[in-house]
């Protein structure tokens, strides 16, 4: 099935997941910043489904990559919910202990860069969402990660005055990630039209 969609935005989203996620995860763990490592881990997990979707666009959404997409979404849904649980428990413990991460300019720069990259990516993905259910799902995941970027920026800014801001942002991220994990789990039950590449015939390539 030819949708007219380009695989470039999906691959760009996957690349952003690596380029933003890896340093955010490392820096967050190093500084004890819950919101930062949660954002980073989520980016790495969100990038993998986008990579698979980009490959499916290349293949014209034939049946060949359908099972790969289902398995990827299923694995990502489990991992996102585990990440959500870890973020929530860590954030609650931090709120009870009044712990705050180390202050610095790097987290603020990283949060700003994340929004600057993810906002146009989501805009492009949204424009393609109506072409295929897989593209719509990937656009939704990009929007969720953009929302996490907004929470990260808020946590970093407020953390300069309020010790609890990072933990509060991490807690909100955990809740959002759990919701996204549930949505991914539902996404594994693709419709018949999607499983046939939208052509209406299960004999397509």
Automatic annotation (TrEMBL):
Transmembrane segments: 34-54, 75-97, 103-124, 144-162
InterPro entries listed in its UniProt record: Cation_efflux_TMD_sf
Membrane topology category: Multi-pass membrane protein
Predominant subcellular localization, coarse grouping: membrane
Subcellular location: Membrane
Keywords per UniProt: Membrane, Transmembrane, Transmembrane helix
Record carries keyword Glycoprotein: no
Protein name as catalogued: Uncharacterized protein
Organism field: Geothrix edaphica
């Amino acid at each position: 099935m030819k949708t007219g969609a380009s695989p470039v935005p999906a691959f760009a989203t996957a690349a952003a997941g690596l380029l933003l996620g890896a340093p955010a995860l490392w820096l967050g763990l190093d500084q004890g910043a819950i919101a930062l490592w949660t954002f980073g881990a989520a980016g790495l997990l969100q990038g993998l489904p986008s990579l698979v979707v980009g490959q499916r666009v290349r293949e014209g959404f034939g049946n060949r990559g359908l099972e790969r997409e289902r398995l990827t979404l299923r694995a990502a849904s489990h991992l996102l919910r585990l990440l959500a649980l870890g973020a929530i428990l860590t954030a609650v413990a931090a709120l009870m202990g009044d712990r705050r991460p180390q202050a610095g300019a790097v987290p603020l720069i990283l949060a700003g860069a994340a929004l600057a990259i993810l906002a146009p990516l989501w805009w492009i993905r949204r424009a393609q969402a109506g072409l295929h259910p897989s593209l719509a799902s990937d656009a939704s995941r990009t929007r969720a990660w953009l929302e996490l970027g907004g929470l990260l920026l808020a946590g970093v800014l407020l953390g300069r005055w309020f010790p609890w801001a990072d933990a509060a942002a991490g807690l909100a991220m955990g809740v959002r990630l759990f919701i996204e994990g549930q949505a991914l789990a539902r996404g594994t039950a693709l419709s018949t039209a999607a499983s046939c590449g939208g052509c209406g015939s299960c004999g397509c390539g």
